[in-house]
Amino acid sequence: MNNNKGASPLAELQGPRPALGWRMNMLHFFRSPFRFQRQLYEQYGDLVSLGTTDKPKTIFAFGPELNRQVVANPDYFEMSTALVKIPKDTVMGQMFYNNLILMAGEKHKQHRRLIQPSFHHEQIVQYSKDMILLTEQLCDEWQHKQEIDVNAEMKKITQRIAVKTLMGTYKDKDLDQIGELISQLTKSLLWVTLTPVDIPYTPYHRALRIAGQLNDYIRSMIDQKRTEPHAADVLASLVKAHDEDGAKLSDEELVGHTFTLFVAGHETTANALTWTIFLLNQHPNVLSNLIEELDGAVQQGTVSMDKINKLPLLEGVIKESLRLLPPASIGTRVTAVPCELNGITIPASTNVFFSQFITHRIPELYSEPNRFKPERWLDFKPSPFEYLPFSTGPHMCVGWYFAMVELKIVLSILLRRYRIGITRNAKISPNLMMRPVHGMPARIVKQDRAFVREPVRGTINELVDF
Ligand code: HEM
């Protein structure tokens, strides 16, 4: 498949060719990512080129078969760093480039082997205890609130869970402070890429300072883990990890992986929680059935990972939310050499997008694809190329089980204690990263089961049939 013998000519590939060219297309894409992708798929089919006919800069590859061709062939379709450029010889560069997502081949395999044990079932059981405590703590804080922004609160809880389970930090002050530093650093990456000038008061200068602080902090935590043989957090497990041939992660690699695990893990999970709460709010019958299922399982006593892992409706609700509004709605690779997609040769260095958003809504795979139907998951097992909220292939999310357990724990505690009513007529519009760009305002009251669906405005109405 990935050699170019007997391939069809590239000129056969269709796509929009606006007067102002490729940039105009990308502008449409970033402005209305979902509408734009739907138009491409409906008008041009599963393989679409943007740019000139002979040298497209970008290809969109839609549907399960193309997902397979792109994601399962990492030697041809590589991870791309084109969007972010950080000088490698800075502390920030060391933190950013030492990560699984950007590694390839043997090095990637070796690092995954070292990291994977931190995400095995027995480890997650340990982390789940922190997840439960921190969610209950958030519920207690909510006692003094009536209005919240659901997305901001979900970010708060996933950030706390990430810092605690990754680094074992116990002090409340540290939990929020470290989370905040990491968030500030990731937010500044665009400016760092655009203006890499180290002059006081520039975003680059500030980002370097924050990276330095974080680096010092994570290194001090690494030293601490070496003196705590029984610590049960991810960093402790990474410090202890070694390969069959004795290979271990260097301190620089440990810092990079800790940073990436935090970045890759907390915002995606926060957005998944936000949309699941939203979809339940818009489907009161499902919410009512879910609370009944949760009550039945948790009756007296507390939530535990064992109890909530056995609940079919909770599982279906989360899978359906990740299908309809996937936090990683699109993935990207770049062609390492000229290679084929559907028998057409794509030149080297072309950006190739594959789309969870489009795949998850193909009517031949999912009946009534724009509706929220958790019950479809009771007897439905799509292939990994048909349902891929955590991607698939060698770079599949290493934290997928961690995320599923976290989603289940946070939802089962919050929903039993509070009724979260999204504000009537609020403007709810997700961006490409599935973040609600205007937030998600809501009123919270103690759970009284008086569920009502309030209509909302915004582009969410184009994405879900209520
Ligand atoms: C709902 C939550 C999450 C979603 C939707 C999600 C989604 C994804 C996706 C789609 C990828 C692959 C990207 C690609 O193929 O281009 C990925 C990779 C990754 N994720 Fe997640 N993720 C989530 C939570 C987490 C958590 C909680 C962690 C860690 C604690 C994590 C750590 C990672 C890492 C390290 C990779 C890179 C794996 C590699 O390249 O080998 N993710 N994630």
Automatic annotation (TrEMBL):
- Record keyword Chloroplast present: no
InterPro entries to which the protein is assigned, alphabetical: Cyt_P450, Cyt_P450_CS, Cyt_P450_E_grp-I, Cyt_P450_sf, Cytochrome_P450_Monoox
Q: Which domain of life is it from?
A: Bacteria
Binding-site residues, heme: C397
Q: What cofactors does this protein use?
A: heme
List UniProt keywords, sorted A-Z.
Heme, Iron, Metal-binding, Monooxygenase, Oxidoreductase
Q: Which Gene Ontology MF annotations are present?
A: heme binding; iron ion binding; monooxygenase activity; oxidoreductase activity, acting on paired donors, with incorporation or reduction of molecular oxygen
Family statement: Belongs to the cytochrome P450 family.
Name of the protein this chain belongs to: Cytochrome P450
